[in-house]
Amino acid sequence: MSICAIVAVDRNWAIGYKGKLLVSLPEDQKQNFKVKTMGHPVIYGRKTLDTFPGGRLLPGRENIILSRNAELSVEGAKVMHSVDEVLKYAASEPDEIFFIIGGAQIYEQFLPFCDTCIVSRIDAEYEADTYFPNLDNLKEWKPIRKEGPIDSVKGVSFEIWTFRRDRRYKNHR
Ligand SMILES: NC(=O)c1ccc[n+]([C@@H]2O[C@H](COP(=O)([O-])OP(=O)(O)OC[C@H]3O[C@@H](n4cnc5c(N)ncnc54)[C@H](OP(=O)(O)O)[C@@H]3O)[C@@H](O)[C@H]2O)c1
Q: Taking residues 148-166, what's their average pLDDT?
C-alpha cells in the first residue's frame, strides 16, 4: 500500500486561514487533485469536511473522515477515530493508494507514514494560520518531478512538485 499526501501551499507552506483554503484554483482542483485522487480512498480531518460545499463528500472516492467524536456518523463515509485505525485499514488493502488530503492536523500526523507528497506550490503569499511541514527543510524528502508553471484564472501561477521519501529514511510503517 502507498500513502500519498496531496496539498496546495503558498510560498510559506501555508495551507489555510480561518478554516478555509487560502485560494481555490480550479485548474489545480480539476486537472491535478481530482485526476490523481479519483477512484482512490481519501483521508481527511473533520474540520476539512466542514470546508466542503454543503458538507458534501468527494464523489467517486472512498471518504475516510478522522474525528475523536465517537458519536459522529456521516452517511456515505467511514469515520475513523485514530491514526492507527486508518493505518490498519490501509494495510488491509496492499495494492491501494491512500491520499491524505488535509488539513494541517491530519497532514502532520500522517506525514511520517507517507512515501510521496504531491505539492501544488502557489507563487503567492497569503495571510494564514495553518501550514504543511516545509519539505524543502526535511532531509528525508526529495523533489523528483515538477510540472508547470500553470497560470490560473485566479491571477496566480503554480507548479506541481512531487516529493519522494529518500530510501535512506524509512517511513514509520
Ligand atoms: N491547502 C490545502 O491543500 C488544504 C487541504 C485541506 C485542508 N486545508 C485547510 O486546512 C484547514 C483545516 O485544517 P485543521 O488542521 O484545522 O483541521 P483538520 O486536520 O482538517 O481536522 C482536524 C480534526 O480532525 C480530527 N482529528 C485530528 N487528529 C485526529 C486523530 N489522531 N484521531 C482522530 N481524529 C483526529 C479532529 O476532529 P474532531 O474535532 O471531530 O475530534 C480534529 O478537530 C482549513 O483551513 C482548510 O481549508 C487546506
A: 97
Residue with cell 496566480: 156
pLDDT tens column, 76-117: 999 999 999 999 999 999 999 999 999 999 999 999 999 999
How would DSSP label each residue in 89-119?
A: HHHT-TT-EEEE---HHHHHHHGGG-SEEEE
Pick the CATH number of 1-10+42-113 from 3.40.430.10, 3.90.1150.10, 3.40.50.300, 3.40.50.1240: 3.40.430.10
pTM over 0.90: yes
Torsion sign (Cα): 19, 63, 23, 50: negative
CA of 65 to the centre of ligand 1 (A): 9
Alpha-carbon distance 168 to 108, whole Å? 21
Per-residue pLDDT band at 173 (split at 50, 70, 90): low
86: Cβ below 6 Å to ligand 1?
Answer: no
